[in-house]
Structure formats: C-alpha cells, structure tokens
Amino acid sequence: MNIGIRTTLGGIRRVIEVNIFDFDKDIYGKHLRVYVKKRLRDEEKFNGLEELKAQLAKDKLAAQAS
Fold this sequence. Notes:
With 66 residues, the protein is α+β, with helices and mostly antiparallel strands. Helices cover 26% and strands 9% of the residues.
C-alpha cells in the first residue's frame, strides 16, 4: 500500500493505492478493509518510471517475505 502524493508521477494530492498480489477479480467500486502489517519504506521520488518499477518489484519481494 502507498499513502502519498506519487511524487515520481507528478502527483499533487495524497492518494491511497493498494497492490493485491496474485488477484484478478474486478473489485472497482467495492469496499475493502485493508490492514497494515509492516512499513517498508518512506515515499521517494525516483528518476523515472523504470526506476520506480524496479523499486516496486523489490517492495513486492519484501512484502511477501514478511
């Protein structure tokens, strides 16, 4: 989950984004309950989308390992 302004993508307002791994159902418009298990890192501004994607891959591994 990310709670932040998406600095790499030029965001200006705070949003909440949740990645649900290995999930492929359409849940847009549905209400979800999400629990925070562990903080992985602070929000960072990356030097482009490829660098952000690389970090997200590392974050996924870290989240799955905890």
